[in-house]
């Protein structure tokens, strides 16, 4: 199959490529909030424990985080169109397996297959965009549309789950991704413009094995440490394995002639900053959403659909402002735009620390909308800056690396903040039970239930006439844990903002091809003669000033 270049592709084929990229990221992210909002229904239907239930989400996130770098390399080597279609296929297959599941273990398998599909779609969609739109300024607008598709999937997921669960069984939440994947595969086969990375890239199996082992062991260790204890033998083995594998990954990649993640990318301060910001901010934000969903269900006793409408207040702002934020990337310095969004995010999180069990939707709405506003000026500019901060032929690798670190943060968020919430709530519960006027025997019994079965076990305990007071004390204790999560999330957002202020500069973009030549040829010419790139991109008003930031060596990787 001939690979069509961005310069000679017909305009309508390029438009089709961009539409397919947006549809692909929509399919990749739709299961995230749809399944998360349905976890209580899955738990009731399959009679699972809390630890078994936590692996429903983690079974999806783990392969996404562990394999996203590998799928990016597969796309660079074998063609992004093939990997894109494979990602759609795995997404549809995973949804089909989960739709037919009769046990929690089969749900895990379906989630893992869908996570593998998302791992293939995320870097491939951004690489397709980078190839189809070589001009960095125009690319920022397109990435805004890509981010809008992502946030649309996150926004409507809880609403879709709520509508389905009000009328049907939990398994039907997996129906929509199946026809969506099949239709996208059919259109992609006919319309999608293929592309590969220039040069002789090869698959990096040592890098893939060490990266997957490090990510899997780290997430497993954090999750199991929260459920049991971080001094548990298996947890210590997992965390030690993660550390050793991470060191081995760095050593392997430094010596590889065709690395999966070229470590010279981190010579770009903008790429380093956006990667750290992605991991830190998503750890706090995804962990907060996990805690907020539990607050709506456990404390305010809302249905899945009612919770979905409230979460929509957060997602609507990135949905509406994603594309305008993409346009601002080349008008406002990322050093101002991204930290500014993170400061707004932190302020919104801190404003939520005043909520209690009876907080009304109106009081919550403006705080959640403010949180979404801050996120809108982080997600799109962060992605656009990461992709634009490296040479064009490394855009796929940069996209995969940025997404990999983002998914590691997303995987760790619920585990870390869920552990903090549970520990704080269980610690505060006896005091709230006493304040509610309960006797010593009842307090000891409820506390023992919380210690052994968790907060959900307390909510399901029938204590006769004392039940309303127990549930009230449980709500107050949960709010104490939520407030701790909010403070931690806000601190992480502020930390990410400081990273951005220290490292971000206005990105120095590799110049797009000046005329209708092959972008790959242009990239090799630029690598051999950097001065020629500056001359080709120079406008009539004068030469381009040299970049003050360290440049990535175009010949490496």
From TrEMBL:
Residues 526-542 have a biased composition (Low complexity). Gene3D superfamilies: MFS general substrate transporter like domains (1.20.1250.20). Residues 17-508 form the Major facilitator superfamily (MFS) profile domain. GO terms for molecular function: transmembrane transporter activity. It is a multi-pass membrane protein. GO terms for cellular component: plasma membrane. Residues 510-557 are annotated as: Disordered. Keywords: Antibiotic resistance, Membrane, Transmembrane, Transmembrane helix, Transport. It is found in: Cell membrane. Pfam families: MFS_1. The chain crosses the membrane at residues 18-42, 54-74, 86-104, 142-165, 171-193, 205-223, 235-252, 273-296, 336-355, 367-392, 404-423, 481-504. InterPro entries: MFS, MFS_dom, MFS_trans_sf. One of its GO terms (biological process) is response to antibiotic. This is Permease, MFS superfamily.
């Amino acid at each position: 199959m001939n690979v069509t270049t961005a310069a000679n592709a017909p305009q309508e084929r390029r438009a089709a490529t961009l539409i397919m990229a947006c549809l692909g990221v929509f399919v990749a992210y739709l299961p995230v909030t749809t399944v998360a909002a349905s976890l209580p229904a899955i738990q009731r239907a399959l009679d699972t424990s809390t630890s078994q239930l936590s692996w429903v989400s983690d079974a999806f996130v783990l392969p996404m985080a562990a394999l996203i770098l590998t799928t990016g390399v597969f796309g660079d080597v074998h063609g992004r169109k093939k990997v894109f279609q494979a990602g759609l296929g795995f997404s549809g297959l995973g949804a089909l397996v989960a739709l037919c599941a009769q046990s929690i273990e089969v749900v895990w398998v379906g989630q893992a297959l869908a996570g593998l599909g998302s791992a293939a779609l995320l870097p491939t969609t951004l690489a397709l965009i980078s190839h189809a739109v070589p001009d960095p300024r125009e690319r920022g607008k397109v990435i805004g549309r890509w981010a809008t598709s992502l946030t649309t999937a996150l926004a409507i997921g809880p609403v879709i789950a709520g509508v389905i669960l009000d009328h049907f069984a939990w398994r039907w939440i997996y129906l929509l991704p199946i026809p969506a994947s099949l239709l996208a595969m059919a259109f992609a086969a006919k319309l999608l413009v293929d592309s590969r990375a220039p040069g002789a890239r090869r698959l990096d199996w040592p890098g893939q094995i060490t990266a997957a082992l490090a990510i899997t062991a780290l997430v497993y260790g954090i999750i199991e440490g929260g459920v049991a204890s971080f001094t548990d033998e298996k947890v210590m083995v997992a965390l030690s394995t993660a550390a050793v594998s991470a060191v081995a990954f760095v050593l392997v990649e430094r010596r590889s002639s065709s690395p999966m993640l070229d470590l010279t990318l981190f010579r770009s301060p903008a790429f380093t900053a956006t990667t750290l910001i992605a991991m830190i901010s998503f750890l706090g934000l995804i962990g907060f959403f996990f805690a907020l969903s539990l607050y709506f269900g456990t404390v305010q006793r809302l249905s899945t659909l009612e919770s979905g409408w409230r979460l929509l207040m957060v997602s609507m702002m990135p949905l509406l402002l994603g594309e305008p934020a993409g346009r601002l990337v080349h008008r406002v310095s990322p050093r101002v735009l991204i930290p500014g969004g993170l400061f707004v995010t932190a302020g919104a999180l801190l404003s939520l620390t005043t909520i209690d069990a009876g907080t009304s939707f109106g009081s919550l709405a403006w705080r959640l909308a403010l949180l979404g506003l801050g996120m809108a000026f982080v997600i799109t500019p962060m992605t656009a800056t990461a992709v634009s901060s490296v040479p064009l032929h490394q855009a796929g690798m940069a996209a995969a690396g940025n997404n990999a670190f983002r998914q590691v943060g997303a995987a760790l968020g619920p585990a870390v903040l869920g552990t903090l919430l549970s520990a704080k709530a269980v610690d505060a519960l006896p005091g709230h039970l006493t304040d509610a006027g309960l006797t010593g025997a009842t307090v000891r019994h409820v506390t023992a239930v919380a210690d052994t079965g968790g907060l959900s076990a307390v909510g399901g305990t029938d204590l006769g006439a004392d039940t309303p007071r127990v549930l009230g004390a449980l709500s107050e204790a949960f709010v104490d844990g939520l407030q701790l999560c909010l403070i931690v999330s806000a601190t992480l957002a502020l930390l990410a903002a400081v990273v951005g202020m220290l490292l971000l500069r206005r990105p120095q973009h590799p110049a797009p091809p000046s005329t209708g030549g092959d972008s790959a040829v242009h990239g090799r010419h630029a690598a051999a003669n950097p001065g020629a790139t500056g001359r080709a991109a120079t406008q009539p008003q004068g030469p381009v000033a040299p970049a003050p930031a360290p440049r990535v060596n175009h010949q490496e990787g």
